Amino acid sequence: MVVADSGAVEVVVVEVREFDPERDCSEVEDVERRCEVGPGGKLSLFTDLLGDPICRVRHSPTYLMLVAEMFVDKDGDEEERKIVGMIRGCIKTVTCGKKLSRNGKNPLPIYTKLAYILGLRVSPSHRRMKIGLKLVKKMEEWFRENDAEYSYIATENDNQASVKLFTDKCGYSKFRTPSILVQPVFAHRVRVSSRVTIIKLPASDAESLYRRRFSSTEFFPRDIDSVLKNRLNLGTFVAVSSESYCAESWPGADMFLADPPESWAVLSVWNCKDVFKLEVRGASLVRKGFCKTTRIMDRAFPWLHLPSVPGLFRPFGLHLMYGLGGEGPMAVKLTKALCGFAHNLAKEHGCGVVATEVSSLEPLRLGIPHWKKLSCSEDLWCIKRLGGGSSDGSVGDWTNSPPGLSIFVDPREF
Ligand SMILES: CC(C)(COP(=O)(O)OP(=O)(O)OC[C@H]1O[C@@H](n2cnc3c(N)ncnc32)[C@H](O)[C@@H]1OP(=O)(O)O)[C@@H](O)C(=O)NCCC(=O)NCCS
């Protein structure tokens, strides 16, 4: 509270309310543009939401976006309101553990209702005023009203502001540290071994395969069918040795799983390019010039397979590989072939990079080509138990459970 020279009492008020697409879009985009993700002072990543601030949650079954609006109340008269922060959240049912089935063979998933916080931003000129904290608390209220049992967030390990806000002030604990692996899309096509057959699965086969083989993987979404049927999903692809199958001899998911080849791998591709664009800012002219030269060379001599840098300093799109899995001694090699295939698909669609996110213990990560400089080796996921629900029964408190070898990263909230 401030008493102005005139004697009027001025109170600065911050109100958190639901985002209104009719009136808030341009202001929210403005805050987004001014927000760096991660620590300042070096290269940083900006996100262009293509005019739709809800885009990163709108494909989830239940979602909400809140904005923090600030205004000065002068003796009961309001001065102009402005948006200074926002937060998105969504809720869905995912696997948090597994139990043995009656026949003792296939593990069965244990599901829980999980909430996820993303896209928390506070305008740089209004930080350290507890606005971030207020937004998180309000979002958590909505999570509880909707019976979510856990809430989690993902942030860069070195984003001190965010890590401290969630761990010191909101009761979250560090949970998993998956890696975001990013592969540049070159101007040339990547060679895919001719000894590998890649088969695009019909959506129903993709669903059966994921439900039967991956539903007990942590974070597996129970509504996988809606993920696979979404227009942003570009397909699910299985790689096998060309000695075992050709594209025409796919027997259907049931027969395939009843008698699978010795080795196989699977992944799906999601088109994030139509949802948001990214841009790397803060690079020197020398660095930009060098990157541009590699690109010109790669375009001119594609047969040389030069590892050129895509145009990351202007808005670029990405494809996400998700639902990676596989079995057998050749699974890593088959994963590599699938990643090469996904690269070529991304090239056809004009993307700058192909990304994926995998558990730090994922055995197939050896088959995922990526550039260390573009990747994030430790994306930190922090979790909190919200309520006393007990759908996770035999798992106990999920927040204390050890990590599995794999996690299922939902492309809807990447
Ligand atoms: C992270 C962010 C949302 C914090 O918003 P904020 O409104 O400034 O945070 P608050 O004022 O509510 O801070 C609450 C607590 O968080 C921690 N915190 C916030 N900013 C911090 C900083 N720069 N350094 C260390 N701790 C910080 C402190 O514990 C703080 O409490 P204190 O002020 O009593 O010490 C803001 O810095 C931001 O928009 N960053 C860029 C986008 C981003 O990284 N988002 C997070 C992705 S999940």
TrEMBL record:
Keyword Acyltransferase in record: yes
One Pfam entry name: Acetyltransf_1
Residue span(s) of domain N-acetyltransferase: 14-191
CDD domains reported for this sequence: NAT_SF
MF-aspect GO terms: acyltransferase activity, transferring groups other than amino-acyl groups
Top-level taxon in the UniProt lineage: Eukaryota
UniProt keywords, alphabetically: Acyltransferase, Transferase
Family annotation (Gene3D superfamilies): 3.40.630.30
Alphabetized PANTHER family for the sequence: ACYL-COA N-ACYLTRANSFERASES (NAT) SUPERFAMILY PROTEIN, N-ACETYLTRANSFERASE HLS1-RELATED
Similarity annotation: Belongs to the acetyltransferase family.
The name this protein goes by in its record: N-acetyltransferase domain-containing protein
Lineage: Eukaryota, Viridiplantae, Streptophyta, Embryophyta, Tracheophyta
